[in-house]
Amino acid sequence: MREGHNNVIYRQDYLPPPFWIDSVDLTFDLDPAKTRVLNKMRVRRNPDVPPQALRLDGEELNLARVLVNGQGTSFKMEDHTLVLENLPEGNDPFELEIFTTCAPAKNTKLMGLYVSNESFFTQCEAEGFRRITYFLDRPDVMASYTVTLRGDKTKYPVMLSNGNLVEQGELDDDRHFAKWVDPFRKPSYLFALVAGQLVCREQRIVSRSGKEHLLQVYVRAGDLDKTEHAMNSLMHSVAWDEARFNLPLDLERFMIVATSDFNMGAMENKGLNIFNTKYVLASQATATDVDFANIESVVGHEYFHNWTGNRVTCRDWFQLSLKEGLTVFRDQEFSQDLAGEASARAVKRIEDVRVLRSAQFPEDAGPMAHPVRPDQYLEINNFYTVTVYEKGAEVVRMQQTLVGREGFAKGMALYFQRHDGHAVTCDDFAQAIADANPESPLAQKLEQFKRWYSQAGTPRVRAEGRFDEASGTYTLTLSQSCAPTPGQATKLPFVIPIAYGLVAADGREVASGMHVLTEASETLTFNGLQAAPVPSLLRGFSAPVILDHDYTDERLLTLLAHDTDPFNRWEAAQRLATARALKAIRGGGEVELDAPFVEAMRTVLRHPTLDAAFKELVLTLPGETYIAEQLETVDPQRVHVVREAMKEQLAQQLFADFEQAYEQNKDTGAYRPDPVSSGRRALAGLALAHLCLAARQSGDTVWPGKAYQRFKDAGNMTDRFNALTALVTSGHPLAAEALQRFHAMFKDEALVIDKWFALQASAPDRGGNVLPVVKQLMSHPDFNIRNPNRARSVIFSYCSGNPGGFHRADAAGYVFWSERVMELDSMNPQVAARLARALDRWKKLAEPLRTAAREAIARVAAKPDLSNDVREVVTRALAD
C-alpha cells in the first residue's frame, strides 16, 4: 500500500490550499539512473486560510536540500510528505528551493518521470508530479512554469516542455540545454517533459485572427510516415474549435509526442500533448479504419482540452468530469461535424451509444457505481471511468439539447468569460450554460438537472401508450425510476429530455417533438389520430436512460422499416435481436430465428438507399455483455453459445445476400478513411465473416479460400484484418497459416502485433481452447507485460473482452485473472486496477461461477502489499 495515502478522501471535506505557488522554475539534469531536479518556487500564504504548516506531496524522491529565501530551514518528513513549519509570516511571497533526485529508469508505474525506449517522458495526471519534485500536487494550485532541461546532446537531441522555447545552447561535456516558458498558469498535473532521439513532422498554420502557429508531431525515427493523419486531425481540430466555439489556439506552437509505453490514450499537457502511439501512428498498411477514426477523435479530444481543461481546470479531482465529460462531448461533436451528412453523423452517434450501453450502464449497475461527480475515493486513478467520461458527455449533451446549439455556444462563451484561468466546479459550468439561456428548461430546472452530477445509476423510463379509437386520442404516460446504488438508496427524479415521434402503421410520421420529463410520472395527449401510432421514443438517444416499453415485433418492424430517426431504426433491430437472444437463453433449447426477423434483416441488407455503415450496425448482433446485462442471473457461456448460434443462422439464411453485399462493397478504390469508404469496408468485412461462418457449417471451402486470398492481396489493413478476423472467428484451419503469415509480415510493427495478439485472445471459445492460447501468447517472445498496450492486447482482450472464454466452468479463467492482477499490481497498479474491473459484475453470475469468482477476488484482496488502486476495486466488489 502506498504510504501516506491510504485514507478515503471525501468531496465534502474540500478546503482551499493554505498556500499559493505563483511561479515554478525547474531545472532538470537528465540521467536515467539519477535525474537531478532543482525546484525554485515563489510561494505565499493563502490569506483566506488560517496559518498552518506547508505540506508538500512527494513519492519515491531523494531529498538533498531545502532552502527558504536562500537559507537552510528545518523540516520534517511524515510518510512521504515534506512538512515545513518555520516559514515567513504574513502574506508576502517567499522563495522556496528544493533539490531532489529520482530514478526514471526504475519507474515501472509510468507515472511521473520515466524512461521508455531510452527517451524521457512524463505523465502527471492525476498525481504524478509528486514523483518529480515536492509540491502542492492538487489541481487548484495554478502557477507559471519556467523549465530548463539539460542533457547529453547525442542521447537527447530533442528536449521539450510546455509553452514556448525561449533559449537553447551548448554546455560542456557534449551536453546542451533548452529553456521553455509557459505563458499560461497551470496546475502541476499539466506539466510535461520529453527528451530523446525523436523526429518531427511540422506544419505552419494561420488562424482566423491572422496569427501564425507551428504544429509539430514528434515520433521515433522510422515512424514519421505514419503521422500525416494525426497532423491532419490536429489541423482540423484547431480550425473546428475556432469555428464552432470561437476558441483559438493560444500558443506559438502546439506539440504532440508519441510513446509506446503509456498507461492511457493521451494526455493534454498544455501545449505538449503526450500520446500513446496507438492514437498517433497510422498508414493504410498498418492501421484500420477504426484506428484512423480513433486517432482523429483522440487528437481532437486532447487539443480541445487546451480550453476545456487547461485554460479552465478542475478545482478538485471530484470535478474530473468538468473537463473530461465536456471534452468527450466536444470530440464527439467534432467527429460528427467532420463526418458531414446526416447518415454519417447518425452512425457516429450509434457507435458512441454502443460504448455507453456496453460499458457504462454495467458500471452504473455494479459495485464501482458512482455519480458523474463522485463523492469519495481512495485512489483517484480509479475514477477515470466511462461514467466520468462517456456519461459525463451525455450530461453535457443534454444541456445542449435543453438550450439549443446556439444557446450552448453562448453558455460556453459565458463560461470562459467567467472562469478563464481558474479552477472551478461542475456546478460552475452548468450555471454558466443556464445563465446564458435564462428562458430555457435548463435554467428553470437547474437544481433538479444537477442531480445528473450527484446521483449514480442509470434511470429507467417506462412508457405506456393507450389509444381511444372513438375520440382519436392517444395518451402516452412516461414514468421514471432509478435503482439503488452503493451509498445511495433513494433517488429523486431527474430532468430527462425525451425526443419523440409517433409513426403510423404505414410509416407516416404523425407527430414529433421534445418532452422534458421532470416528475416521477407525466402523461402526454395527442388528438386527431386515425389509428394507434407506434411511439418512437428517445430519438437520437436524447438521454442516457433505459427505455422500457412493451413493443411488439410488429411495431418494432414498423420502426425498423420507416422511422425517420436513424438511431431508433437501429434500436428497433437491436430490440428484435435481443428479445430472441433472451428467449433462447432463458428457454434453454436450440436457437431458431423466425422468418419475420430474418426477412427484416434481409430487407436492410438489400435496401437500395441505406448507407453501408448503417447496414453493418444493424446486422451486428448486440454484444454478449449487453445481452448479459438484460438478465438477472448470467451464464456467460450460454450467452456466448446463443449469440454464436444466431450469427450462424443469419449467415446461412442470408448467405446469398451476404455474397451480394460483399461483392458490391469489397472494392473501395484508392484508400481513404472517409465515412462512406469506411462504411463499405465495414459491411464487406461483416459479410465476409458471415460467409466464412456459413462455410464452416456446410464444409464449403470456397469462401474461406476467398478470405485467405483477400488477406494476402489486400491493399490496406482494414481489408486484410477483416479477412484474417473472418478466418479466425469462423475457426477455419486456414486461420493458423494466416496468423503465422500476418506475424511475419508485421513483426516489426508493434501496434499491428497488438492486433495479432488481441484477435487470438478474444476469439470465440470452442471447447475451452482460448485460455491455453492466451497462456501460450504470454510466452511469446514479443509479449512484454510491462508494456500497457501489449498487456491489454492479451490479458484484457481475454478477461474483459471474451466473456465466453473467460467465464470457464473450471474457474481457470478466474485463477488466471487473479494471478495477472497481482503480477501487474507489483509493477503498474493503474493498469492492474483496470484489469481488476473485469469481475465487477460477479454477483450476477450463475453458480458455481459466482462462488468461484468471489474466491478469486478474495484471493487478490488478501494480498498484503496490494496497492490502493487495486484494493479499492476489489474491496468494493466484495462489499454487500
Automatic annotation (TrEMBL):
Substrates-to-products reaction catalysed: Release of an N-terminal amino acid, Xaa-|-Yaa- from a peptide, amide or arylamide. Xaa is preferably Ala, but may be most amino acids including Pro (slow action). When a terminal hydrophobic residue is followed by a prolyl residue, the two may be released as an intact Xaa-Pro dipeptide
Entry keyword annotation includes Zinc: yes
Domain Peptidase M1 alanyl aminopeptidase C-terminal residues, every copy: 553-879
Stretches assigned to the Peptidase M1 alanyl aminopeptidase Ig-like fold domain: 457-549
Top EC category: hydrolase
Domain Aminopeptidase N-like N-terminal: 26-190
Gene Ontology terms for molecular function: alanyl aminopeptidase activity; metallopeptidase activity; zinc ion binding
One Pfam family this sequence matches: Peptidase_M1
GO annotation (BP), single: proteolysis
Keyword entries, A-Z: Aminopeptidase, Hydrolase, Metal-binding, Metalloprotease, Protease, Zinc
InterPro entries the UniProt entry points to: Aminopeptidase_N-like_N (IPR045357), Aminopeptidase_N-like_N_sf (IPR042097), PepN_Ig-like_sf (IPR038438), Peptidase_M1 (IPR001930), Peptidase_M1_dom (IPR014782), Peptidase_M1_pepN (IPR012779), Peptidase_M1_pepN_C (IPR024601), Peptidase_M1_pepN_C_sf (IPR037144)
Named cofactor requirement(s): Zn(2+)
Positions of the Peptidase M1 membrane alanine aminopeptidase domain: 230-449
EC numbers, comma separated: 3.4.11.2
PANTHER family, per the entry: PUROMYCIN-SENSITIVE AMINOPEPTIDASE (PTHR46322)
Family matches, as NCBIfam families: pepN_proteo (TIGR02414)
Family: Belongs to the peptidase M1 family.
General function of this protein: Aminopeptidase N is involved in the degradation of intracellular peptides generated by protein breakdown during normal growth as well as in response to nutrient starvation.
Protein name, as recorded: Aminopeptidase N
